[in-house]
């Protein structure tokens, strides 16, 4: 009886939050996709739990739940002490923060694993919806590509669902972009957007500092680029302004990275990346992305940068791995590569103009694809981490090829 009551109350709360989100979107097409995409998102979270429970029989999602459950079983005084205790860099700080967030939510709702999965999936979904809404207000012609990328692209919705750190941080990234797009259209700082952006930034810095290390400096760069300071200085082209800003932000960004995490300090970054690379290779030597060593000297970086960039976006391809569930990733990546090649073929017939947002997206995709494919060269792990930049790859590709009418026709 108690579990039934818990499910009734939490289901009502989840539906209520979803209805509140739905009421904010006025466009017919967004409303038409909202509920199917939300149901699909929640189902993906449940499927993810089933995958770890019955196929892998282990994994961080189950570990996070067990650790959160252990915290909520404490007396309130001990529980409060545990979730507010200070941490030290030698501890797995990101996992600790995520477990504490999960424990607080569980303490408030008495939810089990599956209900908690639904809450995290909903947060991730609301972030995507917020981004899609703000993006299509700014660029209405992107409604089809944005909906496909953030609502329906298989690996993106799957790995950003359920009780995972990725659900929380993917939601934070999309909320931050939505807040930026809202400011971009009006150039007015609204309290709501500022609060959303601040909360999302805290989540991102706390849980995925290496994503924040690339994302937040680029976001600050974009905000500074659009300041009124430049309005009366027409002599500055896009590229001149970009280079000038990049030099102006260089030292602040280096200080920010050192503050964000000691691993990002310039003096130790390469050593940390190399250590991570070797550890992943030892853990999964067969399903891994190996760096190329053609020259045996520093010239190898000229080969590896484009190789890692390509691998971080399009690999593994069909034929590289036939095991479950990697085969689905191979099929998806192969179709993505075909779409990219077809998009390039179509693009030669059209004239495209670079915008500063497009420059930032290309830098963001390139930096993360190279960094993550070297630091986490296991294809399974990479498929999960790609969700932070893969939607933007999909956006770029879909904006160069014809879209199905049900995705854009009002």
Descriptive terms for the model:
single chain, mainly alpha, 0% strand, 18 helices, 410 residues
Q: Quick summary of this structure?
A:
The protein has 410 residues and is mainly alpha-helical.
Any overview of this molecule?
- The longest helix has 29 residues.
- The protein is an all-alpha fold and about 400 residues long.
- It has 18 helices and no strands.
- The termini are far apart.
- The mean pLDDT is about 90.
Describe the secondary-structure layout.
Blueprint: H1 2-23, H2 28-56, H3 60-72, H4 76-84, H5 93-109, H6 113-138, H7 143-152, H8 154-159, H9 165-186, H10 191-207, H11 209-225, H12 238-260, H13 269-283, H14 300-314, H15 326-347, H16 356-375, H17 379-385, H18 390-398
Give the uncertain stretches in residue-range form. none
Class of secondary structure makeup: mainly alpha
Would you count the extended β strands for me?
0
State Rg. 22 Å
The helix-strand sequence is HHHHHHHHHHHHHHHHHH
Cα separation of the termini: 46 Å
């Amino acid at each position: 009886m108690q579990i039934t009551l818990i499910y009734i109350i939490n289901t009502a709360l989840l539906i209520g939050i979803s209805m509140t989100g739905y009421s904010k979107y006025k466009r017919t097409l967004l409303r038409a996709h909202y509920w199917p995409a939300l149901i699909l998102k929640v189902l993906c979270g449940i499927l993810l739990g089933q995958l770890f429970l019955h196929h892998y029989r282990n994994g961080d999602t189950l570990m996070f739940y067990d650790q959160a459950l252990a915290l909520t079983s404490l007396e309130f005084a001990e529980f409060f002490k545990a979730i507010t205790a200070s941490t030290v860099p030698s501890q797995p700080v990101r996992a600790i923060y995520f477990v504490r967030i999960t424990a607080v939510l569980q303490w408030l709702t008495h939810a089990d694993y599956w209900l908690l999965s639904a809450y995290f999936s909903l947060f991730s979904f609301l972030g995507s919806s917020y981004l899609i809404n703000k993006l299509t207000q700014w660029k209405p012609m992107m409604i089809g590509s944005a909906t496909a990328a953030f609502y329906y692209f298989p690996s993106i919705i799957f790995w950003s669902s359920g009780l995972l750190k990725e659900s929380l941080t993917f939601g934070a990234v999309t909320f931050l972009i939505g807040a930026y797009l809202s400011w971009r259209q009006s150039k007015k700082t609204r309290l709501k957007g500022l609060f959303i952006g601040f909360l999302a930034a805290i989540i991102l810095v706390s849980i995925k500092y290496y994503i924040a290390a690339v994302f937040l400096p680029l976001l600050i760069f974009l905000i500074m680029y659009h300041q009124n300071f430049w309005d009366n200085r027409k002599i500055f082209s896009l590229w001149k302004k970009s280079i000038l800003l990049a030099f102006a932000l260089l030292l602040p960004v280096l200080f920010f990275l050192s503050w964000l995490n000691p691993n990002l300090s310039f003096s130790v970054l390469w050593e940390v990346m190399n250590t991570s690379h070797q550890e992943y290779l030892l853990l999964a030597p067969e399903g891994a992305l190996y760096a190329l060593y053609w020259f045996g000297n520093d010239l190898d970086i000229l080969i590896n940068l484009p190789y890692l960039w390509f691998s971080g976006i399009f690999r593994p391809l069909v034929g590289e791995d036939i095991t479950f569930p990697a085969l689905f990733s191979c099929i998806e990546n192969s179709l993505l590569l075909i779409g990219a090649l077809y998009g390039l073929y179509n693009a030669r017939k059209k004239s495209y103009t670079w915008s500063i947002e497009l420059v930032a997206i290309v830098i963001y995709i390139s930096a993360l694809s190279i960094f993550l494919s070297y630091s986490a060269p296991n294809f399974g792990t990479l498929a999960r981490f790609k969700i932070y930049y893969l939607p933007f790859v999909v956006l770029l590709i879909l904006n160069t090829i014809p879209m199905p009418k049900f995705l854009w026709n009002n």
